[in-house]
Amino acid sequence: MTSRPVRETLQLLVDHVIAESVADLDRPHVLAITEGGLTYVSGPYLDAQAALCALEDDRKVNAEVAADRSYRVTPLLPPFCPHLVPRPGGADG
Prior knowledge:
By secondary structure, the protein is of the alpha+beta class. It has helices at 6-25, 48-61, 63-66, and strands spanning 29-35, 38-45, 69-75. The longest helix is centred in the first third of the chain and has 20 residues, at 6-25.
């Protein structure tokens, strides 16, 4: 049994993390806006770029309160409990 050198193993890990991060950009995203202790979620948007455009639009439209808001764009994850989600075309949806 031969083992990989540590440097090669680390490079494989870095490559994987970068590939997953880049793939995340093409996944649906949501925009979370927090203001006054309340968080609002907008989306889903087609991808990260669309969610960032929504963020910029909100900042422009709500310029007078934008400084009091925090914004976060994040990928929309699949359901953690898929058995609770109706199937498309099924009796539930």
